[in-house]
Specification:
elongated; 17% strand; alpha+beta; 6-stranded mixed beta barrel
């Protein structure tokens, strides 16, 4: 203990010891480059893997949140749902689907909801002259324009009159217009959708934002909801509601009002489960973040095994190093080196070795992330290694060095100088 107290008598002496030890450690790594690289391979793989996984999760989280966020945090979705258990779980799913007139009284019953649209879709053939394409045709109400905030570039949006008349009118995007060889201004032209004649009333702005899971969104054709439903009143066709609260603070109230309205409308008795579900965009965002956190923690656990293996490799090579340098240790002790100095030297050497491995792993991870970002239509276009992951990587590396370097360092510090000098 007297040795320890003397060497740590001042921070300057400690700094000198650590600084000199870092130099010795780097010289040892440089003198045994191949062995150093092989020794740190576990650390390289561990740190590289964790940075790649974290960057990938961050990139996917940003892409999904951007996609979800385009609906606005004050938006919510109302979807039909069949209970998972109980007598209703055996009933056909179509019995729980929404009917077109099921939301007639929602506006009056839910003052916190500023607007909503019914949505359904069919995959139908769209024809103009000799041109024919198959498109996902979406049925919407006029309120959809305010909820989606998509600009109508040419012509007009849908109106309440279109709904009242169940008008055969359609909005198409520019890509569909070009595929059908329609004029630049196609308003007034007629196309056949599912065999029925529709008049084009406008060209809507393309949705260039990536769809869920990456990739470009499908080109789109829109018609009034009631018109599309009348063409194919199949009860199996999925119908859902997109609604918006009056402001972000009213989302919870809007959700409660919608639930209250639908339970009354569907005559659901107290205690019975809902046959629908209301999803807030805000809740979806939080779910996405929670999934990202779970994936990150799970990946960190798997990568931790790699770091453990790397740490064992570090301990092994440090024990070899102590054995190889036993005479050197004995000589240094013979000329007055304190045990604590030997301990710090080998401990610093283990930490430096791990930090070098961590740096290589970080560079490897950054390189892989850059490649992933550069790939065409990459879902990881926004992948990036956050600063906390860099700090965590170096922290883990240093921790592994301290943990697995301690035993060899203690062994070196406790060597008897006479026995060490006799070592062959």
């Amino acid at each position: 203990m007297s040795g320890a107290s003397s060497i740590f008598a001042g921070p300057t002496r400690l700094f000198v010891v650590v600084f000199v030890s870092i130099g010795l450690a780097l010289s040892q790594i440089w003198a045994n480059k191949v062995r150093g690289v092989l020794t740190t391979l576990g650390i390289v793989i561990g740190v590289g893997s964790v940075t790649i996984v974290v960057a990938g999760v961050v990139g996917l989280e940003k892409a999904v949140l951007e996609e979800v966020g385009r609906f606005g945090t004050n938006n919510l979705f109302i979807l039909p749902d069949r209970p998972d258990d109980g007598p209703q779980a055996e009933l056909p799913w179509r019995l729980f689907n929404f009917k077109p007139d099921e939301f007639e009284g929602l506006a009056e019953a839910a003052p916190s909801i500023q607007g909503f649209t019914r949505i359904t879709d069919r995959r139908l053939a769209v024809r103009y002259g000799d041109e024919r394409v198959t498109k996902l045709v979406t049925g919407i109400d006029a309120a959809w324009h305010d909820l989606e905030n998509r600009e109508v570039l040419i012509g007009r949006p849908f109106t309440l009159l279109d709904r009242e008349r169940a008008a055969a009118v359609t909005l198409i995007d520019e890509e569909t217009r070009d595929e059908l060889n329609l004029p630049t201004d196609p308003t007034g032209e007629d196309v056949l959708i599912g065999g029925r004649r529709f008049r084009i009333v406008g060209v809507i702005e393309e949705d260039k934002r990536p769809s869920f899971g990456g990739g470009p969104p499908e080109t789109q054709v829109y018609v009034p909801f009631d018109t599309l439903h009348a063409m194919d009143p199949n009860p199996w066709q999925f119908v859902y509601i997109q609604a918006a609260a009056v402001d972000a603070e009213s989302v919870e109230a809007a959700e409660g009002e919608a639930i209250f309205y639908l339970r009354n409308r569907r005559d659901i008795r107290p205690g019975d489960v809902d046959t629908f579900r209301v999803q807030r965009v805000e809740a979806i965002v939080e779910q996405v973040r929670e999934i990202a956190r779970i994936i990150t923690f799970a990946a960190a656990g798997v990568v931790g095994i790699s770091l453990l293996v790397g740490g064992i490799g570090i301990m092994n090579i440090m024990l070899v190093s102590v054995s190889e340098r036993t005479r050197e240790i004995g000589l240094r002790k013979a000329v007055g080196a304190k045990p604590i100095v030997i301990l710090v030297q080998f401990l610093v050497e283990a930490v430096v070795l791990c930090l070098v491995g961590g740096s290589i792993g970080l560079a490897f991870g950054q390189g892989m992330v850059m490649i992933a970002r550069a790939l065409p239509d990459s879902p990881l276009a926004q992948a990036a290694i956050p600063a906390w992951a860099v700090v965590l990587a170096f922290g883990f590396s240093a921790g592994v060095g301290l943990t697995f370097g301690m035993f060899p360092a203690i062994k070196a510090s406790r060597l008897d100088p006479i026995d060490a000098l006799r070592h062959e």
